[in-house]
Amino acid sequence: MKKLSHINSTGKAEMVDVSEKEITIRTAEAYAEVKVSKEIFDAIKNNEIKKGDVLAIAKFAGIQAAKKTSELIPLCHNIFISKIDLELKLNSNKKTIEIKSYAKTTAQTGIEMEALTAVSVAALTIYDMCKAIDKSMVINEIKLLSKTGGKSGNYTKRNTR
User: Fold this and answer.
1) CA nearest to 58, candidates 137, 147, 145
2) Which of 53, 58, 93, 115 is spaced 20 to 30 Å from 125 by Cα?
3) Which of 146, 157, 108, 152 is nearest to 27 (CA)?
């Protein structure tokens, strides 16, 4: 079994010391989707949600959340984000909003948590903006798509569907 780096010799949780790690360019991509009713889908598509432009606001919410990741995840390092961007697309066949994030840093530790936080908060923002119409929305498929850089190397999620 792989040793967990967030556990010290006495079994207590601790923040990992990354001071000895090499500074490298690191990237991460994450994904989430929000399944909505046809009524919500059409309202978003036609920009008829009373709270405003759902896709634009969710994008900015995701960017802001990525910048606050170390304040939300207890043992996560505060790293400089060189780039964070989100892409939100309406999928009319599935009645979903598909959210992808891309994050980049030059740091001693990875940026996966920032990419995952970005899509998670963007999805929650969509839910918040549309809940007055229908609360049955479902947030699905929050996952890391890929990462590059660092000691553990590159990762690309295999298609498991």
Assistant:
1) 137
2) 93
3) 146
